[in-house]
Amino acid sequence: LQLLAIPGENGRLENRCNKLKVFAKTGTLSGISSMVGYVFGTNGSLYSFVIVANNYTGSKKPFIELEDNI
Questions:
Q1: Dist CA 42 CA 19 (whole Å)
Q2: pTM (two decimals)
Q3: What pLDDT, on a 0 to 100 scale, did the predictor assign at position 49?
Q4: Rounded distance, CA 19 to CA 66, Å?
Q5: Cα–Cα distance for residue pair 48/70, rounded to 1 Å
């Protein structure tokens, strides 16, 4: 977990997902946006997740917002 970005603290997650205890890595290419990592639930359990938006056209902003809302 130490190698992954922490929301509100460092990396690309500095201004994202600030309400959660998340350790994650983001990635974007033309038509692809992704986030992968771990999140602690309200009960303290650790969950892993992967979110990938693939083959889209236009702005990546809606997909980044979707990743943050999930």
A1: 11
A2: 0.69
A3: 92
A4: 15
A5: 13
From the CA atom positions of the chain, what is the Rg in Å? 12
For residues 54 and 63, the answer to whether their CB atoms sit within 8 Å is: no
Considering only CA atoms, which of 7, 65, 1 is closest in space to residue 33?
65
Q: Measuring CA to CA, which residue among 44, 46, 43 is closest to residue 4?
A: 46
Q: Which residue's entry shows tokens 């690309």?
A: 12
CB-based contact 6:22 (threshold 8 Å) = yes
Q: How many angstroms separate the Cα of 57 from the Cα of each of 2, 19, 31, 70? A: 34, 29, 6, 21
Residue 13: predicted pLDDT: 64
Chunked into runs of 10 residues, the chain (70 residues) has average pLDDT values of 63 62 84 89 92 88 82
